Amino acid sequence: MSKKIIVLNGSPRKKGNTSALVKAFTEGAGSAGNSVTEFFLDDMNIRGCKGCFGGGKNPDSPCAQKDDMDKIYPVYKEADIVVLATPLYYWTMSGQLKCAFDRLFAVAECDPNYRNPKKECALLMAAEGNGFEETLYWYDRLEKHIGWKSIGKVLCGDVMAVGDIEGKKELKEAYELGRSIN
Fold first, then answer.
1. Measured in whole angstroms, how far is the alpha carbon of residue 18 from the centre of its chain?
2. How far apart are the first and last CA of the chain?
3. What residue numbers bound the domain in which 11 lies?
4. What average pLDDT is seen over the chain?
5. Which of 94, 95, 106, 180 has its CA 20 to 30 A from that of 142?
């Protein structure tokens, strides 16, 4: 049975190393018959969460703020799998991804008990170095806190310049992760 996958790509570079991981993952997922919708967050107008607890009143547009998150919400709600893709910035995810992810709380506000929709998830990361520990700490706790199930992580270090990822085993790992989804 095919699955619906949403990719939140937090890279600022459309042809960067993180985007190469996303491309490989998407090709693998597509080859297994899944549908993938990618949002390149850097091109979107997404403001930070205001912590207003004013969302959840309209399931079709759950946040009190009106911006490009309204393009993401319907795809997110229908998705079986959420892929978080980001370069490593100062030992954590990019601001683009964190900002968009925080705004997904408005969907949880649609539930009287603030429950997030149950999803599977994956993490794709590229980095100049190899210090993924803080992001993994966040990701693992997020998964448990909101009741998601991780299907995998692909972490590719030592890739600073655009194109440094070419020939790295992590591209194949990303493809295989996508292909394994059924």
1. 11
2. 6
3. 4-179
4. 95
5. 180
